[in-house]
Amino acid sequence: MIEKINLNNILFLDIETVPEYHNYRGLDSETQQLWEQKTQYQRKDEVSAEDFYERAGIWAEFGKIITISVGYFVNKGDIRNFRVTSFWGEEKKILNDFSNLLNTHFNGAQHVLCGHNAKEFDIPFIARRMIINGIALPNKLNLFGKKPWEVPHLDTLELWKFGDYKHFTSLKLLTKVLGIPSPKDDIDGSEVAHVFYVENDIDRIITYCEKDVIAVAQIFLRLRREDLLVEDEIIHV
Q: What is the rounded distance in angstroms from the CA atom of residue 193 to the CA atom of residue 26?
């Protein structure tokens, strides 16, 4: 089935998120209480809500998006290119820019979005933050009333599950077993908040996010038994 999809119609994506505030003390008292209630079952007894706040970027209600990276194929005849770009800055600008991309270039019935665990994390997170920021959902993210087979999203994690829904495989592990260069050669997701708030190095985070997008595209190619991208085919725009 995936062999029949035109690669030029897929938008590969990845997001990086952090807690909405640098630390727990940035929250008002009501939000602190809500955070404590939200995480009571995730936290071990000895871990306080304040200490657990470093993980707030996992939840759209308590986190924010600091970059969205996307990649797409531009194939003409025997020439194959994969173009990668990123949106960053204030969250509302990131979301508006991403929405404009979808509405302008990936709004057709043939277009689909693809990420790793994107159905469970990236896409719902983006949609929730758009609503929080008062941004209209683009058609590709507005899933209200759509049947499962009408949802225009692909997920390399889901494709790798082959129906085994209790199985989770990280992007790092999947690239390893499929012989794809690891995108986790600098930082990983647990370090993004520190790099953002303490090191103030958004360029490093963007590079990391774009590597994840490239890795997802490479996984998709391997699932189709096609040649992996080589460095000359990847264009950063």
A: 15
Per-residue pLDDT tens digits for 219-235: 999 999 999 999 999 99
Tell me: the pLDDT tens digits for 12-50?
A: 999 999 999 999 999 999 999 999 999 999 998 789 999
Q: What is the pTM assigned to this prediction?
A: 0.94
CA gap 109, 9 in Å, rounded: 10
Tokens 């209480």 identify what position?
33
Estimate to the nearest angstrom the gap between the alpha carbon of 49 and the chain centroid.
Answer: 26
Helix axes 91-105, 122-132, angle to 10 degrees: 110
- DSSP code at position 190: G
Cα diameter, the chain: 60
Phi, psi of 114 (to 5 degrees): -145, 130
What is the residue type of 103? N
Residue 225: phi and psi, rounded to 5, are 60, 40
